[in-house]
Amino acid sequence: MRAPRRRWLSVGASLAALSLFALFAIAPPATPDASGQLALYIAAHPQTLRVSERVSIGVGSRDGYSATAGVESLASSGTNYDWAKMVLLSGGWPQSEANVTVMVRWMRQENGADNWWNRNNPMNNGYGSGGGGGTGSYANLVIAAQKAAENLQRNPSFATIVEAFAVSAPTSITEQAIWASPWASSHYGNGSRWHTSPVAVVASPANAW
């Protein structure tokens, strides 16, 4: 009379094991971190250059061209958006909409939009400002932009941010890289204290440049 009970126990154990296997089999994969998401983005958006073999030097018409704003033109306009572009220019990164959007949001997190030029240090950057905790100041905003780009490029901890800027990654990827980095000890609450609303265009005093 005990044999049927053992069979039922065996069947029950088999069903439980099968249920656990099925549960793990359908579980979604973990979301990649900023570095992983950036790698996926780069893989999905490879950059290529194709030159026609039919092009002859000196023959045909010239293509149109465009130029990004330089230091002098950005400084003469003097807004927070101009300074964001100056950082990108100093770092050799595209002045794309995504990159500029991230920069002005980042500046707002550090000093607010209405006083973004505070201490001529919009990013509260400690590198070269005389304030290790970001409390120092620069002689002008042009130097501040150069030092912000230099700090991002010199410190391996900011490598994912630099790579994201280089490929004009979506704002969400670049911002996650910023939160994960040691730029702010708070990590901006891992994004919970990071605002994505539009940033107003605000001009700084002319003497800040």
Q: Any idea what the shape is?
A: globular
Order of helices and strands: HHHHHHHH
Provide the helix percentage: 40-55%
Q: Per DSSP, what share of the residues sits in E-state strands of 2 or more residues?
A: under 5%
Instruction: Tell me the Rg in angstroms.
Output: 26 Å
Euclidean distance between termini CA atoms: 94 Å
Mean of the pLDDT scores? 81
Poorly predicted residue ranges: 20-25, 54-66
Enumerate how many helices there are, as a single number.
Answer: 8
Total beta-strand segments: 0
Q: For the report, how would you describe the main beta sheet?
A: none
The secondary structure category is: mainly alpha
Tell me what you see in this structure.
This protein has 209 residues and is an all-alpha fold. Helix content is 48%, strand content 0%. The protein contains eight helices and no strands. It has helices at residues 3-26, 34-44, 71-77, 80-91, 97-111, 141-154, 159-166, 171-180.
Question: How would you briefly describe this protein structure?
Answer:
The chain is built from 8 helices and no strands. The protein has helices at 3-26, 34-44, 71-77, 80-91, 97-111, 141-154, 159-166, 171-180. Helix 3 (71-77) runs antiparallel to helix 4 and helix 4 packs across helix 6.
